[in-house]
Design goal:
It is a single chain. The chain has 154 residues and is of the alpha+beta class. Helix content is 39%, strand content 18%. A 4-stranded antiparallel sheet has the order 2-3-1-4. Strand 2 and strand 3 form a beta hairpin. Helix 1 crosses helix 2. 14% of the residues are buried.
């Protein structure tokens, strides 16, 4: 469901995506409004599900999570019970940063952050012990070229 947003909403969202820790007064100043209307718009966008949550972005490498793997998963299992079990396993694993179900030859792609290759192997062994998987291919990211949480608002 698409929510109708006007230019002011987009300006507020852009300001929040840049730095959600800034004060309401600062956001209002940046978007050319006063505090109360900005607060009301933010509240409305939270209620509508446009703003999901406010969080802090952490530097993975500074925390020692230097290895990023993209894990391609193929399965021969397509029953609802298998999928539910697989998704439960993924949701419980803190190493899994993202998981997507795909169209095409690969069924799922996972973004996994770990300390090193040994930690990835530990993750992999745990994954295959909990759910049957036909084929897993792990691709090590050599360099992160672009990573953003900022959505295009245009």
């Amino acid at each position: 469901m698409t929510v109708r947003l006007d230019d002011m909403d987009r300006k507020i969202l852009a300001a929040l995506q840049e730095d959600a820790s800034q004060s309401l007064d600062e956001i209002a100043r940046r978007v050319g409004s006063s505090k109360t209307p900005v607060w009301n718009r933010i509240r409305r966008m939270k209620e509508a599900g446009v703003i999901l949550r406010t969080t802090a972005l952490l530097d993975a490498e500074a925390l020692g999570l230097e290895a990023c793997f993209f894990v391609l998963v193929r399965t021969s299992e397509h029953e609802a019970d298998w999928q539910r079990r697989f998704l439960d396993v993924l949701r419980k694993r803190p190493e899994v940063m993202e998981a997507h179900r795909l169209a095409g030859d690969i069924d799922y792609i996972l973004k996994v952050r770990v300390r090193n290759a040994r930690a990835y192997d530990t993750f992999y062994q745990a994954l295959i012990s909990e759910v049957r998987i036909y084929n897993v291919t792990a691709l090590l990211s050599m360099e992160e070229i672009k990573a953003t949480t900022v959505l295009p608002l245009g």
